[in-house]
Amino acid sequence: MKLLRLIYKRETMAPIFALTFASAAGVLLVSARVVWTGNLQYAFLVWNLFLAWLPLVFAMLAREALREGRTRWRFFSFSAAWLLFFPNAPYIFTDMIHLMYGRYQHFWVDLTMILLCALTGLVLGFVSLYLMQSVVTRRFGCVAGWLFVATAAGLCSVGIFLGRFLRFNSWDVILRPGKIYRGFDAWADGRMMNGSSAAFLVLFATFLFITYVMLYALTHLQPTHLMPAEIANGKAANS
Fold it and tell me: Residue 59's domain spans which residues?
């Protein structure tokens, strides 16, 4: 209950309700497809949506620990968990690769379904990133905040690459560190690193950063207020 009260706090209630609605719509769409086709092919999207919520939960817990003046290890633990699970939020965009193996008769349904889940995951990740950026900005200034965003986008791109192509999970860092080491060893030896993988890392990091900047700018639009003369003119025109 405490976690629910934390998530649905007044200052974040509007985006959280919107993301809850979008997540529910995504789950319903996946469920409808399963019932319609009798195929569990895209049921994994529900799990991926659940994982996309975790960065937001950890970001809120980290900010709350800092706000309440709790011990630093709690803040850094939640922050580390946020960074570890952050790539799960935009990862769903890479699930579009499954469209290559689907049936063409379901292509537009599947595309819409994946895009809805992917966009929901992306915004979930960006809300969590905004919360963490606000912490950094408050402590170290605006420039440091944006450097943090750029660094997070780069690390997120690496995490998505490791998840999609090396099949790592976020919890492998704790449960199977040997797998992480062997994967990085193969990557460092050049067996996995090539022009395509390097392009993926750069382009996806760029995509994340630019998309975040655009959404950040949209959330800072100032509402247009009619001047009194304009209101009077409008009333005169309507009479």
Answer: 2-220
